[in-house]
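New to this. Explain these tokens.
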Amino acid sequence: MTNLEVHKPFELDGDLAALRGDCARMAPHWAAPERVTPLPVSPSLIHGVRVPAASARLLDAMSDYGD
């Protein structure tokens, strides 16, 4: 059987109602994964965070982070 349902073309200028409708139509296509409970990590395995110098300079230059 041929699906003759006509869909309107994708529009960038839509409203919130159109976006919610699009999401509602797509929701059945995705299955939610089972809830995964993360296992605790031993503190001896945590050695800190290393940030590349370029990223540190970028964050330092942002007023929300450096002031």
